[in-house]
Amino acid sequence: MKEEYGGQLRAREIAGKIGGVETPVFGLVLGSGWGSVVQALRECKQFAYREIGMGECGVAGHAGNLVFGKLCNVPVVIQQGRFHLYEGREVSETVLPVAVMKELGVQSILLTNAAGGVNTEFRPGDLMLLTDHINFSGKNPLIGLRPSPGYPVFADMTKVYDGQMSQAIQDAAKKAGAVCRKGVYIQVPGPSYETPAEIRAFRGLGADAVGMSTVCEAIFAKYLHLRVAGVSCITNLGAGMEACEIRHEDVLQQSLKREKMFCELLQEFAKRYA
Ligand code: HPA
Fold first, then answer.
1. Residues in contact with 260: Cβ distance below 8 Å, sequence separation at least 6, in sequence order
2. What is the residue with the minimal CA distance to atom 5 of ligand 1?
3. Could you identify the atom of ligand 1 that is nearest to the CA of residue 212?
4. In this predicted model, what pLDDT tens digit does every residue of 118-171 receive, in sequence order?
5. Residue nearest to atom 2 of ligand 1 (CA)
6. Rounded Cα distance, 238 and 36, in Å
7. Cα three-residue angle 199-82-121, rounded to 5 degrees
């Protein structure tokens, strides 16, 4: 019997509209403000989400394209723009690009995001390699899926983040001169930022950074037997940790400041991970 997983039909249909591309060695999901990382690609081929029936992307800082190309000669696919729960999307929509990557033959996926620092030692501009996560989104992408051979919905999440990928990221970060912390990411639904009491509570739960994406995608990728790694750009300290308010424009600005460094990190990662 052929293996099947939840959401496969739509993902397969979308993947079927993408032709003439080399199987990517890894997939990359870009966080807010890092969209122009695609400029580092050679032999680019771009598909607008609209063209391939993947919907529209509607948040500032998120374009809506799947971009194929070579990064230091390594074929990759970049999801330039993601779907968020806070836009009113279904969780199945937020993880659809992950399923499309699976259908395209991707075996490893690197998820990136902008996040607020919860750990008091973190500073804006630091990177954080995800070692684990807390799903505080209120959703789970596996709810309602039909269990199928090889794809149990009671999926094990003991080790979501891949050791080999994570090591390659750490080595690449060192080469790129980035401060790369490690820690636990907690996904909230958003779109409001947290209160200081929530930030204190999340710290008590063991979170080091907070954001509005990534965890549902990581759960779905793990369910699909993909290797997963995650990197947060700490764009601000959590609510109440600094005197100032948190503004989306400032979050984007801080990500942009780190874009060039992240580009270097990514190229170093591609060389190591190929
Ligand atoms: N909270 C939630 N999401 C975020 C933050 C934050 O402080 N910064 C960037 N994304």
1. none
2. 116
3. 3
4. 999 999 999 999 999 999 999 999 999 988 889 999 999 999 999 999 999 999
5. 211
6. 26
7. 30
